């Protein structure tokens, strides 16, 4: 039996690194989930080598409206970011994801002093772009998905996401 066909492939495309400034806990909401707002006031968005369109951008606003399920097993990421490329073009992105919560993840998300860098594998998500320059229009016309991690550094937390462009299949099975 031959393997199924018609599935998309992925191309490494974009790396997002956001500095997490602080957490603003808001408590339990009507669904039973816990809501926390995280400020991400700076960072970078950059295409990977060989990806087109190539760009580098500096983040000038970012925030994650994060909820944690009542059973405390998963978190829901709802990230909004605004950035400007080195050429002055604006980029807005919306990132939605799910993170598997364990003891190590809880230490990071509650900003405990003994928190450690999280490896890739716990968080996945998808991203949508709105751009201010025709040269970057391909970002709006494609689908991106990836995974993320939180880096615990001496200057605070860095949320990193590595996105791939989803390349549609042309198979006819």
Can you walk me through this structure?
The longest helix is centred in the middle third of the chain and has 7 residues. This protein starts with 8 loop residues before the first strand and ends in a 6-residue tail after the last strand. With 173 residues, it is mostly beta strands. An 8-stranded antiparallel β-barrel has the order 1-4-5-6-7-8-9-10. The mean pLDDT is 95. 4% of the residues lie in helices and 57% in strands. It contains 1 helix and 10 strands.
Radius of gyration over all CA atoms, rounded: 17 Å
Q: How many strands appear in the DSSP assignment?
A: 10
Q: What number is the mean pLDDT?
A: 95
Number of helices: 1
| Uncertain stretches of 5 or more adjacent residues | none
Largest sheet, spatial ordering of strands: 1-4-5-6-7-8-9-10
Relative strand content: over 45%
Largest β-sheet summary:
8 strands, antiparallel, barrel
Helix and strand content put the structural class at mainly beta
Q: How would the global form be characterised? A: globular
Could you estimate the helical fraction of the residues in percent? under 10%
What's the order of the H and E elements? EEEEEEEHEEE
Report how far apart the termini are.
14 Å
